[in-house]
Structure formats: structure tokens, C-alpha cells
UniProtKB/TrEMBL annotation:
It comes from Neobittarella massiliensis (ex Bilen et al. 2018). It holds the Pfam family IU_nuc_hydro. Signal peptide: none annotated. Keywords: Glycosidase, Hydrolase. One of its GO terms (molecular function) is hydrolase activity, hydrolyzing N-glycosyl compounds. This is Nucleoside hydrolase. InterPro entries: I/U_nuclsd_hydro_CS (IPR015910), Inosine/uridine_hydrolase_dom (IPR001910), IUN_hydrolase (IPR052775), Ribo_hydro-like (IPR036452).
Length: 314
């Protein structure tokens, strides 16, 4: 059976790390390359964290390429409060000395990789601000159309977003223009908003204990999220993990996890003083525009947790 080939673009914080573990440990998937971008943490730290995660996965080592350190048109807001100063819970992790990123810039690498693969063979999953992908679209729009699908962890649907950008969600807010470029690039886009990563999907205290005791991979998936667990204890009164990026990865790799979705016309607000980054969507397509996104509105708790925990235990 041929493996699905995916590209991962990440601002590697602690939930990105867990999402990467799922892809690297799923035997039906080949991660062709990992590209890094600033977001949860600055670019160099995001790259170190990607290398740490690949090492901890214990499977194989796809090449890692560094990308953009800032958005196209706005200021970057990091997420130290949720993920720690190092993005990985401040538990002192460092990549092995023999693991280094490639010298080639992420956008150049993506262009080269797309040229080398036939149309429809590669899929892209974005876990952070989409600066690299927006730049790629501007530089090589025809190459981007070779992608089979782009799955984006981003946006807030029917609720406020993140704590420091209440109307929006941080991946989108950090580079709204690039997110809109993705929506207009001509490739099927699956949008996984922050909403579906909460509620019953939360990793509970009991599940955290189970993963910690399950082996080095499960323990790492919890330990790197220690800052997030403490942050959630403070804001929600529960020591839980909200698995934003792992849910997006599960949507991309295990479609059975999706319980509800809506095809729609979508864009993100760019000009509002208070609403920059807000998701604007139209299920009914009153304007008669081409459908440009599939919005995930519900993920099955049981299917997601069966998929994710089976890969993380060990």
C-alpha cells in the first residue's frame, strides 16, 4: 500500500509537537519534509523544537527547513504564556547535536519538492502562521496547485479565539494576508478552527496520567505541554490539554475523525481594528462565489482519541 505523502509547516510549540508525533508514527503516512515558521516561538526555537520532536518520535527523520521569521504585513505575537519560553514547557529539551536543519530556505525547498512530485501526490498540513505558504503562493502559484489538499489549523468559528486576540485565533491573526492567499490558491482547503479542539476533545487529567505512564513518546507528549496544562488550570480550573494542532493533524490523516463539516465561502477580515483575523464564512453562498473551504465543525471524541492515543502510547 502506498503511503500518503505530506508536508508539515509548523511554528513548533508543544501542541505542534504532538501533531508531528502523530504523522511521524502513523505507518500509513510519509512526512516528506518539515518547514518551520515563527509563531508560538521565534523561528530558531521553532526549528529546534521540530528537531527535538523528530528525535523523540523514534521513527525516521524527514528534512527540516527554516522559513520566515515574521509575517508579510503584520507584527508577530508569540505564545510564551501557553507554551513556555522555549515553546516546549521549559523542561530543558535540546535537539541532538547531530540533528540540524538544512541550509535551503523553506520556501525554496517547497518549490523544489513540488517540482519533483506529480500533481496530487503531496498534501500540506499547516500548524502555525501561514507566512511560508503565503510567500510560496506569491512566488509559485502554479506549483502550489499541484497539492492535493491543504489542511489549516486556524480560525475561530462561532466563538472568540485565543486569549490575547479575543475576536480571532492566533495562527490566522499573525498573518491574515497569507491565510487569505491560501483560501484563493485554487487547492481544496480544509479549515480546522480552534473550537473543535476543545470541549470533549480535551485531553483529561486521567488521559494525561495514562499517556505519561505509557512510555517515552507518551511521556514526552505530556511533558512538553506542562506549561499549557498549567495555563489551562489557571483559565479553566482544569489541568487539561487543548489539542489544537493534533486535532488538525488527525482531521488530515484520519478523515473518519470528522463528524460534521460545511463547505462554504470563507475569508478572513484584514482591516478591522478589533476584528483583524476574524473568520467570515457563508454556508449559503448568497453572493454566488466559488466554494473555497471546507470548515470542520465537529470532531468525534472517540475516533480522535482512539487514533491519537494509539499512536502516542509507547
Amino acid at each position: 500500500m502506498d503511503k500518503r505523502k505530506i508536508l508539515i509547516d509548523t511554528d513548533t510549540g508543544s501542541d505542534d509537537a504532538v501533531a508531528m508525533l502523530l504523522a511521524l508514527r502513523d505507518p500509513s503516512v510519509e512526512v516528506v519534509a518539515v518547514t518551520t515558521v515563527a509563531g508560538n516561538v521565534p523561528l530558531e526555537q521553532a526549528t529546534k523544537n521540530a528537531l527535538i520532536t523528530i528525535h523523540m518520535a523514534g521513527t525516521y527523520a524527514p528534512p527540516v527547513y527554516q522559513g520566515l521569521a515574521k509575517p508579510i504585513c503584520s507584527q508577530m505575537q508569540h505564545a510564551f504564556g501557553a507554551h513556555g519560553k522555549d515553546g516546549m514547557g521549559d523542561i530543558g529539551l535540546v535537539p541532538p547535536a547531530d540533528m540540524q536543519p538544512k541550509a535551503e530556505h523553506a520556501v525554496d525547498a517547497l518549490m523544489r519538492i513540488l517540482k519533483q512530485h506529480p500533481a496530487g501526490e503531496l498534501e500540506l498540513v499547516t500548524l502555525g502562521p501561514t507566512c511560508n505558504i503565503g510567500t510560496l503562493i506569491m512566488r509559485a502559484p502554479d506549483l502550489v496547485k499541484k497539492l492535493r489538499r491543504i489542511t489549516v489549523m486556524g480560525g475561530a468559528w462561532m466563538e472568540p479565539g485565543d486569549y490575547w486576540v479575543p475576536p480571532a485565533e492566533s495562527n490566522i491573526r499573525n498573518d491574515v494576508e497569507s491565510a487569505n492567499l491560501i483560501l484563493g490558491c485554487g487547492v481544496p482547503v480544509v479549515m480546522v478552527p480552534i473550537n473543535v479542539c476543545r470541549g470533549d476533545i480535551l485531553t483529561t487529567e486521567e488521559e494525561i496520567e495514562m499517556l505519561t505512564a505509557s512510555g517515552p513518546v507518551g511521556k514526552f507528549s505530556v511533558d512538553c505541554n506542562r506549561t499549557l496544562i498549567g495555563f489551562n488550570k489557571q483559565r479553566w480550573g482544569r489541568a487539561v490539554i487543548d489539542p489544537a494542532d493534533p486535532v488538525a493533524m488527525a482531521v488530515a490523516l484520519c478523515p473518519d475523525c470528522v463528524e460534521e463539516k460545511k463547505d462554504c465561502v470563507m475569508e478572513f477580515e484584514t482591516r478591522g481594528r478589533y476584528t483583524r483575523g476574524v473568520m467570515v464564512y457563508d454556508y449559503w453562498n448568497r453572493a454566488g462565489k466559488p466554494i473555497n473551504a471546507t470548515l470542520i465543525t465537529k470532531v468525534s471524541e472517540r475516533r480522535y482519541k482512539d487514533y491519537a492515543y494509539n499512536l502516542l502510547r509507547g
